[in-house]
């Protein structure tokens, strides 16, 4: 996937996305950057006392660190930057991650319908030697239309909710369930690209 002559390789830096999320891969591609994908197998359990911001930032760092420690020696640790990210949905203090099964998706969507919730995405950028670490997050408010159970079940039947925080995808059929948003749309999809571009600059990676 890496190519010479394209950012950030022209700057002599390798970029790695520590994510198996197709959404994050597409969004990073959309920034015009060349990168490699190495999925992280980091444990995603966190202490219940953490705030939403702390959860997404902790997990973003954990995912990036898990990949950085497993890199082969051919990656120059001071010239390799790893990106990790994590997204959660928060409704009235309750954190909603990815649904365990369809029943869990029904529970989540029944709670979210007709309400405004928040989506938090954390982003971590770190040099593979872990000398430079940058971590931040964005928060977006999303209002979902009121829906009856039949409509929710039909949406679950599309299969779209299964691997998405809060059991919906704003970028898919789920868009038709959304009344409005306040804040960064890309943050809801899983990667706040505008924030990420600012975070990459101190690592010598300029998007434009
Ligand atoms: C709210 C919402 C979430 N999502 C997705 C983004 C994330 O992929 C997922 C949240 O789960 P995450 O645990 O953040 O990410 P992941 O397991 O998919 O990928 P990885 O840990 O390897 O990076 O929910 C959407 O695609 N659309 C949405 O509207």
Automatic annotation (TrEMBL):
It comes from the Bacteria. GO terms for molecular function: nucleoside triphosphate diphosphatase activity. The record marks 23, 87, 171 as: Important for substrate specificity. Signal peptide: none annotated. GO terms for cellular component: cytoplasm. InterPro entries: ITPase-like_fam, Maf-like. It is an enzyme of class 3 (hydrolase). Transmembrane segments: none annotated. One of its GO terms (biological process) is nucleotide metabolic process. Its EC number is 3.6.1.9. Its cofactor is a divalent metal cation. It is found in: Cytoplasm. It holds the Pfam family Maf. The active site is at 86 (proton acceptor). It catalyses: UTP + H2O = UMP + diphosphate + H(+); dTTP + H2O = dTMP + diphosphate + H(+). Its main location: cytoplasm. Keywords: Cytoplasm, Hydrolase, Nucleotide metabolism. HAMAP family: Maf. Belongs to the Maf family. YhdE subfamily. NCBIfam families: maf. Nucleoside triphosphate pyrophosphatase that hydrolyzes dTTP and UTP. May have a dual role in cell division arrest and in preventing the incorporation of modified nucleotides into cellular nucleic acids. This is dTTP/UTP pyrophosphatase. The lineage of its organism: Bacteria, Bacillati, Bacillota, Bacilli, Bacillales.
């Amino acid at each position: 996937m890496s190519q010479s002559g394209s950012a950030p390789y022209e700057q002599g830096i390798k970029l790695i996305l520590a994510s198996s999320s197709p959404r994050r891969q597409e969004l990073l591609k959309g920034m015009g950057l060349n990168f490699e994908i190495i999925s992280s197998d980091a444990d995603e359990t966190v202490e219940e006392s953490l705030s939403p911001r702390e959860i997404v930032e902790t997990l973003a760092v954990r995912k990036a660190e898990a990949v950085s420690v497993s890199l082969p020696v051919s990656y120059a640790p001071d010239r390799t930057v790893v990106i990790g990210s994590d997204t959660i949905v928060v409704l009235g203090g309750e954190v909603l991650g990815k649904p365990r099964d369809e029943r869990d998706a029904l529970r989540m969507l029944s709670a979210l319908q007709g309400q405004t919730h928040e989506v938090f995405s954390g982003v971590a950028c770190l040099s593979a030697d872990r000398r430079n670490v940058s971590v931040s997050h964005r928060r977006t408010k999303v209002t979902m239309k009121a829906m009856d159970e039949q409509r929710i079940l039909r949406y679950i039947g599309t299969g779209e909710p299964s691997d998405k925080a809060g059991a919906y995808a704003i970028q898919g059929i789920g868009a038709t369930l959304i009344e409005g948003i306040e804040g960064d749309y890309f943050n809801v999809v899983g990667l706040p690209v505008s924030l990420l571009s600012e975070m990459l600059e101190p690592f010598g990676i300029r998007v434009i």
